[in-house]
């Protein structure tokens, strides 16, 4: 089996998964995050069906028909663009929650609409919608990038994570295993599943049963639920452990975005330090490299078993690290930002809060390189240059200033 090594101590995490899933069942109706009311109604009918089918039409050069969840999110937006531009048919789905300003998500969705990608405002737990989509479209693949993001926010809104990351994922898997044909599923996991591991670089075979945050626990739960649906129902499932993805159209809660904003506004930035004053290091991975890994995961995924398994072996259950393989201390990362912005940061070094951050992330991508042809090529200096150029265009030039209104948003 090409991935997903689960040692005996993984039983601990399995029990944790059962506990989390029990919470889901008990809180199914009350755990919904704050969603704009306009995102709930979906107007079914001939016009809606026609628009869905048009978005899902495969063009010359394309091969797949893909449901992309979280399409208005950072990674989902870029993956959707790449799929459409190479000719694949797709439909996007996003709940446009207010974890960070919705204006940014709507701006991404508007660009996708211009390129012919329909983005439906709906939640993964809307089973009626999922049933309608899978009845209308024979998806070859599902790219599940929908999730409640953020490590520190989970301390304040734990049920939002259970609702989106666990219940939503189960809802989607249920629809996939009932579909005809069953699609292959690629889903976003996270480097955070490595939790308190001290061995670096992180490899897919490493134990992941010591999560340091609730967010990480939900992502580990995703992997174990995926394994279950692969084993019982023969679904083709591939998990992607992303390592600190950054780039244009990124998330304003991430350090590269919030630091840039504060430096430009001459506000201080907080740089976390671990025990003994050890500075945090991150394996910053540029969005274009991650997108290539996502598309390669789709292209290499084996088909799901069609019909009951009846003793047939399931397709490989795969997990891949998608990182840059080169962790950089946060201070060095800030120095690069200063060069591109031609401004100095006001640096405040503070103790790392007890909210789930880890001292270092560092990806071993040997498996992804061998099986996906994944090869990260963007150095941090170059990637941040691209991001700063985008930031200046949309936040500092008169032509685009105001297109994306972040208001008084401050990340957790």
TrEMBL record:
Its EC number is 5.1.3.6. The keyword Transmembrane helix applies. Signal peptide: none annotated. Keywords: Membrane, NAD, Transmembrane, Transmembrane helix. Residues 66-304 form the NAD-dependent epimerase/dehydratase domain. Coiled coil: none annotated. It is found in: Golgi apparatus, Golgi stack membrane. GO terms for cellular component: Golgi cisterna membrane. The chain crosses the membrane at residues 6-26. It catalyses: UDP-alpha-D-glucuronate = UDP-alpha-D-galacturonate. One of its GO terms (molecular function) is UDP-glucuronate 4-epimerase activity. The keyword Chloroplast does not apply. It is a multi-pass membrane protein. Belongs to the NAD(P)-dependent epimerase/dehydratase family. PANTHER family: EPIMERASE-RELATED. This is UDP-glucuronate 4-epimerase.
